[in-house]
Protein: Nitrite reductase
Organism: Bagarius yarrelli
Amino acid sequence: MEKLSGKDKELIRDSWESLGKNKVPHGIVMFTRLFELDPALLTLFNYKTNCGVVPECLSSPEFLEHVTKVMVVIDAAVNHLDDLDSLADFLLNLGRKHQAVGVKTQSFAVVGEALLYMLQCSLGTGYTAALRQAWLNMYTIVVAAMSRGWAKNGEHKSN
Ligand code: HEM
């Protein structure tokens, strides 16, 4: 996997220190933005509760669990910045699972945009161009690994 610079790591760690302690509220800001950017993604959350409607979806326990899951993956990445390779198998498998539930790889990029939006809202003036780029670099590494798993699952199905 790609490597991050020392400066990238410092910017990511410092900014995540307080955000990571409040994962769900920040995750909700992120997913609210995600559904503004692509409302069709709501239909992929086929929980028993009505996830065709944004407010109902955002307050359903299963959905909030997924929000937490996403934030935990981000937390894991931030905690393994020196060794992102150790997450490769996990992320590959995660990509496979998302292929199986109908998520497209392009949608991972929209999640990235929503992540940056959440960082901007939360960090205010701390959201500098260098910080934005550092997070983008990390997220790109995560998504590249997930996308490899996604593609492998797709291949497997068409065989
Ligand atoms: C458009 C984007 C996404 C959609 C529509 C989506 C949807 C889903 C769905 C339907 C599931 C299965 C049900 C569930 O566990 O809640 C799932 C599982 C999961 N998702 Fe996502 N997801 C998206 C992006 C992401 C991203 C970017 C991450 C992490 C960086 C992530 C992390 C997870 C995790 C950890 C699971 C549990 C996998 C397991 O059961 O082992 N998701 N996702």
